[in-house]
Amino acid sequence: MKITVLSGGVGGARFTRGLLAHLRTVLPGAPDAPAGTTAEVTVVANTGDDMWFRGVRVCPDLDTLMYTLGGAVHEDQGWGRREETTRTSTDLAAYGLGGEWFTLGDLDLATHLARTELLRTGLGLADVTARLCRRWSPGARLLPMTEQEVETHVEVDGPDGSPVLLHFEEWWVRHRAALPARRFVQVGLGPSQPGPGVLDALRDADVVVVPPSNPVVSVGTILAVPGVRDALRATRAPVVGVSPVIGGAPVRGMADACLRAIGVETSAAAVARHYGRRDEGGVLDAWLLDTADAAAAEELRAEGWVARAVPTLMTDVPTTARIAADALDLVAAGRR
Ligand code: GDP
Ligand code: CA
After folding, report:
1. In this predicted structure, what is the pLDDT of residue 336?
2. Are strands 151-157 and 183-187 parallel, antiparallel or unpaired?
3. Which domain does 99 fall in, by range?
4. DSSP labels for 106-169?
5. Domain tally, the chain
6. What is residue 280's DSSP assignment?
7. Within 13 Å, how many C-alpha atoms sit on residue 71's CB side?
8. pLDDT by residue (tens digit) across 22-57?
């Protein structure tokens, strides 16, 4: 079985870790595994948050995936390396270059240095990512959505009221998404193409999962890469989404600020309708939401959705494995 996941950072990485844990219980060697069952998980990662910073290429969502699936993530924080230190960033601040709002951990910096060195040899980001993943054995294939530098910028009001563009990371990390966003702009999107393997991973999948990632700046950015939305609409695989919104609020982070900017209410039903059903021109076939939103599930079913409410708080790996199993179950009947 081939499963393709369209992921941002923390939400998508935690979900994928649970998915892999679930698959390990149904694969060869596991007590209930059907004979010959194998599974291959491909993650198409958002690279819209990437940036050049201090001379190195930083890929926040790819790294969160790599560290989470590779067992190296700072668990409480959800991103970055565990047992991280920040001596280099602290020392750099003394030079007063600006940009002190973004801290590169000492261990994390090693990843960015390695990535930058590999990129400088002429390798594309897909090959570079595969090379970095050799160390971490994430158990899934991590593919950048594109190899071109597509960066999400946020348009906010400048001091004199005229529009100013900030890199997404500056808006999110420095300003904690508190500056009202007028809109998101993907700089470099026009001439970009899906990264190597991305369209194949959508076409050849048996199931595609949209995990509980930010619908605007994670999944929305992946879908905006020319060709990706069409490939998702065309795949024979069923597409199931898991709501990142529970009871009218994002579980962590400030996704509500992103949804507001695109005029979508922060509710599990509104996010489902924003993605839309494939039989109505959208990208999903089914939607898994939280038991707190059972009424919304009912509402969506009345509109013709395949929707189910289950506990979706990813509190630990076994609980998250259950959520992944529920997502797969929801579309199992339609799977070819
Ligand atoms: P980011 O790139 O690090 O922001 O991560 P993602 O885009 O992959 O995921 C962010 C989203 O994950 C947020 O909007 C959260 O609401 C959602 N999220 C985080 N933890 C949970 C959880 O335990 N359950 C659910 N349903 N969503 C979650
Ligand atoms: Ca991100």
Report:
1. 34
2. antiparallel
3. 2-148+191-335
4. HHHHHHHHHHHHHHHTT--HHHHHHHHHHHH--SSEEEESBSS--EEEEEEE-TTSSEEEEEHH
5. 1
6. G
7. 6
8. 999 987 667 666 677 789 999 999 999 999 999 999
Question: What pTM did the predictor assign?
Answer: 0.96
Residue range 203-207: mean pLDDT, rounded: 98
Q: Which CATH number covers residue 6? A: 3.40.50.10680
Q: Give residue-wise pLDDT tens across range 133-179.
A: 999 999 999 999 999 999 999 999 999 999 999 999 999 999 999 99
- Ligand 2 mean position, distance from CA 267 (Å): 20
Query: Taking all residues of the chain, what is their mean pLDDT, rounded to a whole number?
Result: 96
Dist. CA 218 → ligand 2 center (Å):
6
Mutational pocket test of ligand 1: of 63, 76, 252, 308, the residue with most ligand atoms within 8 Å of the beta carbon: 252
Residue 85 lies in a domain: yes
Q: Name residues with Cβ closer than 5 Å to ligand 2, which is an ion.
A: 8-9, 49, 61
Does 243 reside within a domain? yes
In whole angstroms, what is the distance from residue 263 CA to residue 276 CA? 15
Whether the Cβ atoms of residue 6 and residue 211 lie closer than 8 Å to each other: yes
Ligand 1 centre distance from Cα of residue 242 (Å): 10
**Residue 162 in domain:** no
Q: Is residue 224 part of a domain?
A: yes
